[in-house]
Amino acid sequence: MVHRTFMTLVLVAAALVAAPAARAESINAGGRTASPVQPFDARSVAEFDTPWAIAFLPDGRMLITEKPGRIFVVTQSGQKTEIGNVPAVAARGQNGLLDIAVSPAFATTSQVYFSYTEPSAEGSRLVLSRATLSLANDRATLTDSAVLWRQTPAGGGGQPGGIIVFDPSGQHLFLSVGDRMQPNSAQDPRQARGKVLRLNLDGSTPSDNPMAEDKGVAAQTWTTGHRDPYGLAFAADGRLWLHEMGPRGGDELNLIEPGRNYGWPLVSNGDNYDGTPIPRHKTRPDLAAPLLYWDPVIAPAGLAFYDGAMFPQWKGSALIGGLRVHALVRVTFRTDGQPDEAERWDMGERIRDVAVAPDGAVWVVEDNSPGRLLRLTPRK
Ligand SMILES: [Ca+2]
Questions:
Q1: C-alpha of residue 246 to centroid of ligand 1, in Å
Q2: H or E, element range at 40
Q3: In angstroms, rounded to a whole number, what is the distance separating the alpha carbons of residues 207 and 228?
Q4: Cα angle 32, 317, 305; round to 5
Q5: Which residues does the chain have with pLDDT short of 70?
Q6: What is the pTM of this model?
């Protein structure tokens, strides 16, 4: 008996030591400042009306969305071809045409996925669509366009989210959904707001989702309690990361694990814009805390993990655009997974999205009209 108790203690102690240290830490990078010295040359390649997202085609051309409702095919030298047959969007404030993502099976299907706020009698709703991209003779058009998912309930303005990412197996997609200025909806399992959803590639619900036995939104939900998520991406090690804009002083970088609740609006490391306080993450250990947060905020937008050849010193880093801080942020990860902001470069404009080209160059778009598409290459 004594031996068994002793062994149990040893095992418990070993488990505690082996527990990821990352869980215990919540680093505030809000006080960091941007360097005016960039290690890259930034060349403007083209300009757009409020560009929102960059997605690379396998051949190195880009798909670029404009929030008011247009999509372009863009060559690396900046030649733009507007894509025809794009559905009408409800463009107002933060809402409009949002993300675009190239299907993992694009080589055989030519399919793309995109998100936008759709006009409806009850108010706009976020939707996820899939279409075939036809490219021929300098013309580009969407055919067989189909809405795979519609937000319920409709209505509201605010921040829609809308980031689309595929899992490394290429069998599922994840969609981030903002709270659209209705904070309590993020904790309501019946509302497709303040969530990360996981769907099959045809929009149906995977049978191994955390609440798959439920119906509707709950069955589609992967994680709960997000505010305004505009960054969602898989790292090379298979971990899924999300950043979200918090209230005043509460921007977050979160490690996404199935079924977890990330706290909004019950807890935050920031306070409401009207000054009313919000309990801090540490008061609710049952809710997942951000491993990295920013107070004051950066207003993060766009998230890409770097695995290219041009900037070997950035391998494994996350690159994040900063709207409020007019910057590009590089986040590194310790061997135990704990992230920290390593560098921040002043870009002089609000950065809306960041993407890595097949050749390892980094591309960003500015949140402006005109907003530039910039190609970043190592400084010569
Ligand atoms: Ca949170």
A1: 8
A2: strand 40-48
A3: 27
A4: 120
A5: 1-24
A6: 0.93
